[in-house]
Structures are given as structure tokens and as C-alpha cells.
């Protein structure tokens, strides 16, 4: 939606957009610079935020000049408040909301108590991608058979830990700079300090002392994100017992590291550490590692990403106590049975990475001032991100997006939620379809998914009385994958044979994270299999894996064509 | 796939005999045919393509005890081309799964048992338990798991017993008790060490850990395996014997390891060959100078010597020949220079194949790769048993000359001593200091005569004394 081409072709929407600015201020000459910044910011921070929206309003595809928004913002709030919109938290969610707000002509401010970019840019997706880029190459260079099959000869591959760490750090600062500049250039006020809500439409920001400033806003978005969750009993020293925050700095590469939690964070780090020469032990509370993935994909992924690597695992156990290494003793991990709570074993390792999930960060937000009680730390919201107070009523003009509401803890989901909120406060009824938001795990090869897993789809089908069909294609049959000697992988489509609705797509294989968007877009747009199967894919490309997938699905064409409705979650 | 071949040989009748002899654990298991009565059918690994020789079980669609209808998918098999669903030809019950998910089986081998009625499931399962269980290792792309080479191939190079004794001091005697392992009750081993131990059938208990805090790491498992005593080739004793520390206990009698037995056998066999020896002294100043010049490019002295030898062999094919039957010359079409390397508990001869044709830089790289593989016990049979001429070099230990025993199956072996400065009188009556190296070739006199060796050594001397051709 935000490609350079569509921007340059765009004109103010002829449809009633309720934007007075558009009428009074004709589109000025466009500056490519703005387009560039806009694109960069999205491309880096929230790769798929824009595409994963399900827009129900009629003007969903219209484009607006960013400049219109800038002029609007400079004019000041039209509502009698200091700002039309104040966002607390400048992570990817807040950033996405801010950019969209400016585009919609709102006078916008964003409050950040730490660094712009939030978890994703500074301590999450972004630096981890830098490390994974390194691990992918290491893995390839170390795989002698793989190299030989290309006829390549490579001397022993090695790495410089500090330079690898620098690459991750540099990438984070670069993206952070891009984000900051894009907001500044569009006229978003970046207010430094911690934001606290004082009451409806009123908040203060600052260091929490007498220097705090009070501002008013027509609408407020809470986007304070999350921090790594450290279960009790675990002592994090930042050196030998670490969270992803520390691990991304790559201060040392232990010979043996235990990773507590085998979700996508743990899995990505296992990819990095094993490529750099560490041995890994997973500690997983559930009965199998990689919970949360479609079982079939998880099984295949385990065959490729875990079994042949220097990894072992303990499942069905909690790490009840973890003591950092000291006085020459290694890190000690006490394991107890997840069900009976009986002590099982003690592991002694060189380091432990706690990847058990993330906890919402809402401290100091002043939720008590508006009678909001968090649930397991999360801010309760409805499907439109409206904050619900202790009495079950909406807090007027207050929204919460991203990790803080816990609906879907992904950077691009936060951004999509933010854009959805901006749509609502500017008068467009809008509900985000979370089932159209893709997720990816950037291992080698990658895993990606959108929509329901097979068990979820079957459960839903049983409840609602429809049939579910499944088709699979293999990367082994794909020319491009074979040319790359990367035939390992599969794509799986879960759909309704009666009407051709796509329920879920799961991909494991080369560049799976980039391939998923054809499916997520189809879900977002309500495209049916019988339609998308006629779309043409360039040959030879990996995208033909999906092409083949759609073509092999059998839809009973007698069924009337229906467009799926948005599903709030 | 070759790896899985080795690990799951019970199902690999197609593996060449040379492979079958030295499998790790699986091979020693008794191979009992399935004696299945009429109502219990075997499900075979199907041939899914004309080129398929074995298939990997991707997943079992059905579990043991599930009812099957004719035409229903039972298992997903990965062939050399693609993953395919395999259907049942009969109605019945999936009674027993013999080849688990992730493992491979040869085309035509039994992968599961199908019972006609529910009652027969138990019977089928009892059949299963009496049949060989496939090795439990995961076959999925296990390129980093080394193969087991317990036995030496028949042409064992036994050039230098001295080499073996040099390495025997290397393995230290240590305590198997991990300081924090609750008095040895618990084994602390790294994930890869555990994986290796499982794949190789080595018992972790009692292995001396050399990692941090006495933890058992991968190389400890490999060392333990090298020290394994598999008397009589029975795998059953493998695990128990691993525990033996590799240090020497005075006053005890220690049986040979498999590798040592093979060496012994070959040494005795060599007595049947009428050998003779010819010595020669090379001046190596020019070679040393060349070596200094190209050392930075990764070239090793071993590679230089192998290359020089190979180039000399090109001109003297008879020295590269062997006598197989006592009646004829076998002129080898390739010049494959084997070089003896001491490894833990024995020695092995990685082979530089076509050493005459490969340039010195590639040859040096190849050599490094072979040595690494030899240390990790990952050499493929053709990488250590295809030598046509053997080099044994003890020069690095300061040995100035020695005598090598001819490995059966080859024609000649050259023992190389140290390159040392010597005071030499030259023909023009001067005295000078030159670096010299003595070699001593042992050859089979049935095919190689004294004049042949003399001519070969003269050619080799020319090459070594004017070594610029080596870098071409």
C-alpha cells in the first residue's frame, strides 16, 4: 500500500474522507524524500503492518499525500486540546499509529521514556535479524556438503564475535534513526519522558518529578509494549543468565547454553548460537518443543532445525530455580516436573537464556487514575482496542495497542492495531482481522504462518459445521529451491472446500517469511482460492510453492461465492 | 543419505560389502528374518521412483493399533524426489511400526507390520520385538555426526609402529567422576556429546569428561569410541568396554582394539610378500626454500612430498603397480598417494587421490580436510583404502632414517626421515653445508626390481632438488 508508485500516483480521495484539509489545501508538489522516509520506516520496523490490515471502510485503498497531513499537523489541534492524538510509547506500534494519524490530519505527539523504536527495533526483531543473517551465512559456509554440491570450496569459516555484535547494534541504531527522522519530518512531536494518564483525555509526561508537564489530548493511545518475562526463582545477572535483551548484545558465545522456552524467540536464538558453535539445551514446560506452531510444521521443523543440530531438550519441565555462574561454578538450573512439581534434574551449563515470553509493561502508566485493572498485566481492551475499566465500561478516548494489550504480541500487529485506532478516531468504523496477520520465525530455513493451525481449524469447523480440507506442497518440487540446493520444506494450506475460504497457511522452507504475504493478503482481502489460483507467478521463483498450493486445492464450485466477514478477536 | 545408510544398515542390503563390514552399532545386531504367519503382513518400503534405493519415513499417518482400510494413507515417505503418501493394499490394523519417523529404510525392506484382525496385533508386536530394531539415531541431515570406523580396511598401512606408540601417550588417564555429578551418579554431558553417544552406541557413564567442570563433550565421546574394545566384533560389548580409561595399567594384558587387530593381521600377512629396500639421500635446500615461499598459501610439506612422489610415479608406472595374485602386474590407472597418520589408538592412511593431477594448493587443502576427517573418524572407505603408493614420514620427530613395512595390496612404501643440515663433500672437491633428507623405499620384489626403484628415486631426487615444477 505504501509503495513509491502508489504514492506518486495518488490524489486526494474523491470519496468523503471528512478531511477538511484535503479540500482547502490542494496537494502540494510531492517530495520524494517523504516517500522515501515513509517507505523506509515501514519496511524496516513493521514489514507487513500495512498489508495485514483488513479495512472495511470504503476508502481503504485511497492514498493521501503525507504533506497534507503535515500541514494539518502544523495548524494545531482543531479540537480544543493540546493534541488530537497522544501516543504513549514510540515502538513500532506507536510509530505506525503516529504516521497514520499525521496522514489523517491529526495533530500528534508521541511520548517515549526510553529510546525510539521500542523492543522490536532496539531489543527484538531488528537486532536479532542481524544476528540471524550472520548465522545463516555461517551455517551455509560450514555445511561442507552443501558447498560441495555447488562445486564451491571454502576454507574453514570463522567469525569475529565483536563485529557480529556490532552489526546487530549498528542495524538497530540505523533503524532507530530512520524511525525518529520519519516522525520528525512529518511533524510528530516527540516528547521525552514517561507518560502517565491523569484522567480521561489528560496526561503528564517527564521524569516523574516536579518538572512534569501536563497535556490534554482528544484521544490517547497506550502503546507501552512489553519486557522479557522472567519467571520467579530465576536470577538474571545479565552475563551468564540472560534475557533476549542481553543475548542480542552477543557479549559472549557460551559453549553450552540452555534456552528456557522453545517458542519462536528461543528457536531463533538456538539457530544463532548453534551456528556460532554453541551447544543448546531447550527447557520447555509443555510436552513438546516448539508449541504454538502447526503440529505438522513443528514436526518437520524439528527434523530440520533441532534433530541434526547440537541441540537436546527437556520437555514437560519448569526451570524452578536458575543460579548464575559464580565462584567457578557453572550456571545451575533446577528442573521440576511441570505437572507434579517434583524435582527432576539439575542442569549445569555455561549460560542460560530466558525466553519464556514477554510481560506487558504498564508500570507508572496511571491506570489506577482511570479505574483500569490489568489482567495478568495486560490492559483489557475490546476488538477495537478501546480500554475497558474495572466496571466493564469503556474509558472514553483511551485505546491500547500492541504487546500491552496482549492480543497478538508482534510488532506489525501493534502497528496494524494503531492504524485501526486512528481510522476509528477519524470516523471510520474499523475492525482489524487478527487472523490475517502473518507471523514468522527467522530460523534457517524460516517458518511462517497466517490464520489458523490445523487443530484450530478443525475445532472451528466442528463447532460451526463446515468441512476442512488440507493440501500441501513441497519445496523439493520447486525449481528455484532446488537451484539453491534448499529443497527442504513444505507449504500447507488449510481451507474450506465448500466456499474456497483460506483458513490458514503455514510455510517451512527457504524465505518462508517473505512468501507468506500472498496468503495473508488473500485472507485480509477475503480472496478465495478459486480466484487466487488464476494469479500468475514468475518462473522460476519460490512463490510457485504457493501457486502450486492454491492450484492443488479442490473447491466445490457449486457453492455460492461468499466473501468472508471480518472476524474480531 | 549416506550417513543414514551407515546407521541403519539392517535395512540396507544394497550397501556395498565394503560398507557393510564396518558399521557402527546396527551392524552387529543379529539379523533375523521376520517369520510372519499368513495373517500378519509386512509393509515394505516402496520404490517411489526408478532411482530410489532407500526412503526416509517422514511421518506415520497412522499409529500402532489404528484400523486401516485398503487405499488409505499409512505413511509418508521421502524418496530421492519427493515426499509421497503410501497407501495400504489391504484392510487391517497397523500392528507394529518397525522403522520410526525420521529413519531410513532400503526399498523392499519391512517398515511395519499389518495385522488382519485386532487380536493379531499383539502377535505382530511380539514379532517386532524379536526383529532387529533400527538404530535410534535421527537421520535427518545428520551431516555433522561422524561415522564409525571401527575396523581398518584390508590394505592397512602399517608402515610405522613407531607412529602408534607416539600417540598412545596422548590420551590421559582421568577420573570419570564429575565434580558436581553427585559422586558420579549423574552424567553431565553436552547436548552434542549425548547425541553422538546415542548415535555411536557409546555409554556416557564412565567417560572421562574434558570440558568445563569435567563435563563430557563431543571429543570425549569420540576418544572413548576410539578406545573401544570390540573383541570378536560383538557390539553387545561395545558400551561396556567404552568405560575403560585409555591409560596403560602396568602388569595388565590389554586386548587389541579392532583397529589394532587389523594392523596385526596385516603385519603378519605382509610376511608373505618378498620385500627389499633401497635408500637414497635428497638435498632439500631448494624444496625448503619453496616451502617457505608458499607456506603462507596453506601448502604443507606433506602435500609437497606427495606431489613430488606422484610426479615421479608418473614416469615409473611399475613402482605404482602391485602384485595381486603372484602371477601378474596390476598397473594402477590412478596415482593415489596414501600418507600414514597417527591417530588415537592406531594409525590410518588418508589418500590423496590423483595426486599427480591436482595442483599443490588444492592438494594441501585436500590434505587438511582428510586429516580433520581422520581425527574425527569421518573418513569414507575410499578415502583411506584406495592408496597405490604409501608415504610414511617420521621426520618431524627427528628420526633420520627408518624402515617401513609394505602394506599388503600395494607395491611400495617410502619411509621419509628428517631434513637436516649435513656437511657434504661435493664432486669439485669442496665441502659445504646442505640440508639433506634420507628416504628408504620398501617394495614388493615380485613386481618392482632394484633398478626400478633406483630409477624412480633418481627421478624423485631431480624433482625435489629442482622443485619448481611442483607448483605448476
Automatic annotation (TrEMBL), chain A:
> What reaction is this protein's catalytic activity?
N(6)-[(R)-dihydrolipoyl]-L-lysyl-[protein] + NAD(+) = N(6)-[(R)-lipoyl]-L-lysyl-[protein] + NADH + H(+)
Binding of NAD(+) occurs at 261-268, 284, 357
Which source organism does the UniProt entry give? Salvia divinorum
Q: Which PANTHER family match?
A: DIHYDROLIPOYL DEHYDROGENASE, MITOCHONDRIAL (PTHR22912:SF151), DISULFIDE OXIDOREDUCTASE (PTHR22912)
State which Enzyme Commission number(s) the record gives: 1.8.1.4
User: Keyword Oxidoreductase: yes or no?
Assistant: yes
Protein name, per record: dihydrolipoyl dehydrogenase
The record's Gene3D superfamilies line, in alphabetical order, gives: 3.30.390.30, FAD/NAD(P)-binding domain
Q: What family classification does the UniProt entry report for this protein?
A: Belongs to the class-I pyridine nucleotide-disulfide oxidoreductase family.
Q: Per the UniProt entry, what is one GO biological process? A: response to arsenic-containing substance
Q: How is the cofactor bound?
A: Binds 1 FAD per subunit.
Instruction: Return the annotated region ranges for Disordered.
Output: 1-27
Residues bound to FAD: 129, 195, 224-226, 403, 409-412
What is any one of the record's Gene Ontology cellular component terms?
chloroplast stroma
**Domain (Pyridine nucleotide-disulphide oxidoreductase dimerisation) ranges:** 437-548
TrEMBL record, chain B:
Describe the location of the Lipoyl-binding domain by residue ranges: 40-115
Q: Does the keyword Transit peptide apply?
A: yes
MF terms from GO for this chain are: acyltransferase activity
Q: What is its EC number?
A: 2.3.1.-
The record's listing under PROSITE patterns reads: BIOTINYL_LIPOYL (PS50968), LIPOYL (PS00189), PSBD (PS51826)
Cofactors named for this entry: (R)-lipoate
Pfam families, per this entry? 2-oxoacid_dh, Biotin_lipoyl, E3_binding
Annotated Peripheral subunit-binding (PSBD) domain residues:
188-225
Compositional bias (Low complexity)? 125-140
Q: Which UniProt keywords apply?
A: Acyltransferase, Lipoyl, Transferase, Transit peptide
Query: For the region Disordered, what residue ranges are annotated?
Result: 125-149
Similarity-based family: Belongs to the 2-oxoacid dehydrogenase family.
Q: Which PANTHER family match?
A: DIHYDROLIPOAMIDE ACETYL/SUCCINYL-TRANSFERASE-RELATED, DIHYDROLIPOYLLYSINE-RESIDUE ACETYLTRANSFERASE COMPONENT 5 OF PYRUVATE DEHYDROGENASE COMPLEX, CHLOROPLASTIC
Q: Please report the name of this protein according to its UniProt entry.
A: Dihydrolipoamide acetyltransferase component of pyruvate dehydrogenase complex
Amino acid at each position: 500500500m505504501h509503495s513509491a508508485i502508489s504514492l506518486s500516483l495518488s490524489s486526494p480521495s474523491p470519496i468523503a474522507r471528512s478531511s477538511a484539509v484535503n479540500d482547502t489545501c490542494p496537494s502540494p508538489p510531492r517530495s520524494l524524500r517523504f516517500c522515501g522516509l515513509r517507505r523506509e520506516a515501514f519496511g524496516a520496523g513493521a514489514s507487513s503492518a500495512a498489508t495485514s490490515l483488513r479495512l472495511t471502510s470504503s476508502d481503504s485503498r485511497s492514498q493521501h499525500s503525507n504533506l497534507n497531513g503535515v500541514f494539518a499537523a502544523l495548524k494545531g489541534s482543531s479540537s480544543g486540546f493540546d493534541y488530537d492524538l497522544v501516543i504513549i510509547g514510540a515502538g513500532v506500534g506507536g510509530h505506525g499509529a503516529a504516521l497514520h494519524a499525521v496522514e489523517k490530519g491529526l495533530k500528534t505527539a508521541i511520548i517515549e521514556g526510553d529510546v525510539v523504536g521500542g523492543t522490536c527495533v532496539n531489543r527484538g526483531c531488528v537486532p536479532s535479524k542481524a544476528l540471524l543473517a550472520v548465522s545463516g551465512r555461517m551455517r551455509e559456509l560450514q555445511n561442507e556438503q552443501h558447498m560441495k554440491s555447488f562445486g564451491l570450496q571454502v576454507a574453514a569459516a570463522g567469525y569475529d564475535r565483536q563485529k557480529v555484535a556490532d552489526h546487530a547494534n549498528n542495524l538497530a541504531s540505523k533503524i532507530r534513526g530512520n524511525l525518529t527522522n520519519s516522525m520528525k519530518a512529518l511533524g510528530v512531536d516527540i516528547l521525552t519522558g514517561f507518560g502517565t494518564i491523569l484522567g480521561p483525555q489528560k496526561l503528564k509526561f517527564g521524569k516523574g518529578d516536579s518538572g512534569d508537564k501536563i497535556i490534554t489530548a482528544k484521544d490517547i493511545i497506550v502503546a507501552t509494549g512489553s519486557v522479557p518475562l522472567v519467571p520467579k526463582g530465576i536470577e538474571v545477572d545479565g552475563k551468564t543468565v540472560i534475557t533476549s535483551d542481553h543475548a542480542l548484545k552477543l557479549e559472549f558465545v557460551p559453549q553450552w547454553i540452555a534456552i528456557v522456552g522453545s517458542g519462536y524467540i528461543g528457536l531463533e536464538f538456538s539457530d544463532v548460537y548453534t551456528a556460532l558453535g554453541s551447544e543448546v539445551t531447550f527447557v520447555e514446560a509443555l510436552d513438546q518443543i516448539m508449541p504454538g506452531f502447526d503440529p505438522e510444521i513443528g514436526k518437520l521443523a524439528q527434523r530440520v532445525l533441532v534433530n541434526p543440530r547440537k541441540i537436546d531438550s527437556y520437555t514437560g519441565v519448569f526451570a524452578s530455580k536458575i543460579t548464575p555462574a559464580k565462584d567457578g561454578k557453572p550456571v545451575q538450573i533446577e528442573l521440576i516436573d511441570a505437572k507434579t512439581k517434583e524435582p527432576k534434574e539439575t542442569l549445569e551449563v555455561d549460560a542460560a537464556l530466558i525466553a519464556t515470553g514477554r510481560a506487558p509493561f504498564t508500570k507508572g502508566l496511571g491506570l489506577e487514575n482511570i479505574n483500569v485493572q490489568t489482567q495478568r498485566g495486560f490492559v483489557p481492551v475490546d476488538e477495537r482496542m478501546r480500554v475497558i475499566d474495572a466496571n466493564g465500561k469503556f474509558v472514553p478516548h483511551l485505546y491500547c495497542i500492541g504487546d500491552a494489550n496482549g492480543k497478538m504480541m508482534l510488532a506489525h500487529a501493534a502497528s496494524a492495531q494503531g492504524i485501526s485506532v486512528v481510522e476509528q478516531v477519524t470516523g471510520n468504523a474499523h475492525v482489524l482481522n487478527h487472523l490475517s496477520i502473518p507471523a514468522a520465525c527467522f530460523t534457517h530455513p524460516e517458518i511462517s504462518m497466517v490464520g489458523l493451525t490445523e487443530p484450530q481449524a478443525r475445532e472451528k469447523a466442528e463447532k460451526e459445521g463446515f468441512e476442512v480440507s488440507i493440501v500441501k506442497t513441497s519445496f523439493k518440487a520447486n525449481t528455484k529451491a532446488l537451484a539453491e540446493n534448499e529443497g527442504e520444506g513444505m507449504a500447507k494450506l488449510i481451507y474450506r472446500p465448500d466456499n474456497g475460504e483460506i483458513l490458514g497457511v503455514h510455510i517451512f522452507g527457504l524465505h518462508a517469511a517473505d512468501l507468506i504475504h500472498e496468503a495473508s493478503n488473500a485472507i485480509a482481502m477475503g480472496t478465495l482460492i478459486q480466484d487466487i489460483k488464476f494469479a500468475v507467478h514468475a518462473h522460476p521463483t519460490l512463490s510457485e510453492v504457493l501457486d502450486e498450493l492454491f492450484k492443488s486445492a479442490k473447491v466445490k464450485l457449486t457453492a455460492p461465492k461468499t466473501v468472508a466477514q471480518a472476524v474480531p478477536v | 543419505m549416506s550417513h543414514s545408510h551407515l546407521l541403519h544398515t539392517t535395512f540396507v542390503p544394497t550397501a556395498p560389502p565394503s560398507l557393510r563390514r564396518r558399521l557402527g552399532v546396527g551392524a552387529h545386531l543379529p539379523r533375523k528374518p521376520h517369520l510372519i504367519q499368513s495373517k500378519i503382513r509386512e509393509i515394505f518400503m516402496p520404490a517411489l521412483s526408478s532411482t530410489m534405493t532407500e526412503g526416509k519415513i517422514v511421518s506415520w499417518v497412522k499409529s500402532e493399533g489404528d484400523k486401516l482400510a485398503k487405499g488409505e494413507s499409512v505413511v509418508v515417505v521421502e524418496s530421492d524426489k519427493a515426499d509421497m503418501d503410501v497407501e495400504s493394499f489391504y484392510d487391517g490394523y497397523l500392528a507394529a511400526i518397525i522403522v520410526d519417523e525420521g529413519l531410513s529404510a532400503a526399498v523392499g525392506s519391512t517398515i511395519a507390520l499389518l495385522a488382519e484382525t485386532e487380536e493379531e496385533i499383539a502377535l505382530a508386536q511380539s514379532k517386532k520385538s524379536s526383529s532387529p530394531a533400527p538404530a535410534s539415531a535421527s537421520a535427518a541431515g545428520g551431516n555433522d555426526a561422524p561415522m564409525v570406523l571401527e575396523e581398518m580396511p584390508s590394505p592397512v598401512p602399517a608402515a610405522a609402529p613407531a607412529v602408534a606408540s607416539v600417540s598412545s601417550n596422548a590420551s590421559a588417564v582421568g577420573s570419570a567422576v564429575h565434580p558436581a555429578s553427585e559422586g558420579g551418579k549423574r552424567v553431565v554431558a553436552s547436548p552434542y556429546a549425548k547425541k553422538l553417544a546415542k548415535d555411536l552406541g557409546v555409554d556416557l557413564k564412565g567417560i572421562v569428561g574434558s570440558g568445563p567442570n569435567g563435563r563430557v563433550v563431543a571429543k570425549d565421546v569420540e576418544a572413548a569410541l576410539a578406545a573401544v574394545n570390540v573383541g570378536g566384533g560383538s557390539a553387545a560389548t561395545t558400551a561396556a568396554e567404552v568405560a575403560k580409561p585409555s591409560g596403560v595399567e602396568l602388569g595388565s594384558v590389554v586386548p587389541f582394539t579392532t583397529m589394532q587387530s587389523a594392523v596385526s593381521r596385516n603385519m603378519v600377512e605382509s610376511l608373505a610378500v618378498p620385500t627389499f629396500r633401497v635408500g637414497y639421500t635428497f638435498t632439500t635446500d631448494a624444496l625448503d626454500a619453496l616451502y617457505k615461499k608458499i607456506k603462507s598459501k596453506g601448502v604443507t610439506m606433506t602435500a609437497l612430498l606427495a606431489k613430488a612422489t606422484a610426479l615421479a610415479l608418473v614416469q615409473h608406472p611399475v613402482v605404482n603397480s602391485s602384485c595381486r595374485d603372484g602371477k601378474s602386474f596390476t598397473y594402477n590407472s590412478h596415482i593415489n598417494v596414501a600418507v600414514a597418520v597417527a591417530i588415537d589408538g592406531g594409525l590410518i592412511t588418508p589418500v590423496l587421490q590423483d595426486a599427480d593431477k591436482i595442483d599443490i594448493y588444492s592438494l594441501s587443502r585436500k590434505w587438511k580436510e582428510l586429516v580433520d576427517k581422520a581425527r574425527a573418524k569421518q573418513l569414507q572407505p575410499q578415502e583411506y583404502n584406495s592408496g597405490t603408493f604409501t608415504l610414511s614420514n617420521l621426520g618431524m620427530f627427528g628420526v633420520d632414517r627408518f624402515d617401513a613395512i609394505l602394506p599388503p595390496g600395494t607395491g611400495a612404501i617410502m619411509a621419509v626421515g628428517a631434513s637436516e643440515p649435513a656437511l657434504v663433500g661435493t664432486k669439485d672437491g669442496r665441502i659445504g653445508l646442505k640440508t639433506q633428507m634420507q628416504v628408504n623405499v620398501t617394495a614388493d620384489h615380485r613386481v618392482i626390481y632394484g633398478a626400478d626403484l633406483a630409477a624412480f628415486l633418481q627421478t624423485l631426487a631431480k624433482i625435489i632438488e629442482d622443485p619448481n615444477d611442483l607448483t605448476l
